Structure formats: C-alpha cells, structure tokens
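tool=predict chain=A
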Amino acid sequence: MIAAAAAQATHLIGMPEARLTLAEAAAYLALAPKSNSVCVGYEAAAADARATQAEPVPLHLRNAPTGLMKGLGYGKDYKYAHDFEEAKTDMVCLPEKLKGKKYLEEKQITKPNEIN
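tool=predict ok
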C-alpha cells in the first residue's frame, strides 16, 4: 500500500516535487520488518495443489443443487465462518491427503538492521 500510494502521489504531483514522497516511501519500506512466510507458504500450497489436483473435494464443501446430491451428503455439516464470532471454524477444507497441512506459519520477522 505504501508503494502504491507513493506511485499515485508521484503521478498526481509529478517530479521533481515527488522526489521526497518517493524517498520517504523507499526508506519506510527498507526499514519495515521482512518475512518470506507468504512466499514459502504459497509455493508449498501450489506444489500440493498440483500434486493432489485429482483428490476429491470434501463432501461438506460441495454444493447440493439436487436432492440426490443432498442425499449423498453434499453440503452436510457445512459451517459458514461468518456465522461464528471470530469468523473461523474448525471445518476441514482440504482433501484427505492434505488434512492438517498448514501453509502460513508465523515466524520471527527479521528487521533489516538485525541482519548480520
């Protein structure tokens, strides 16, 4: 958001006036805490998605537009997260082979000035 705001400000006010806006955004971003958790998690999830693309979707996540599908258990026990106080449920949303898998692990965030 910082980079996008600086780009928009530069577009609106132009150069050379925007040089301080760009410098401030660059300094802020350079000093901001860094983490590669999203990149690592995304790559792991993408690899698992490719490896398990033929795995069936859990029944409770399947739409049941017909009586037959409803009778087969499609959509049964589905929990709408927004009906819960924290907007979270314990519902399993991954195929059986990926049950319990986590892709975004909270890690210690490294600040640039702490890197040796």
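Helices lie at 2-13, 19-31, 37-51, 67-71. The chain has one domain: 2-114.
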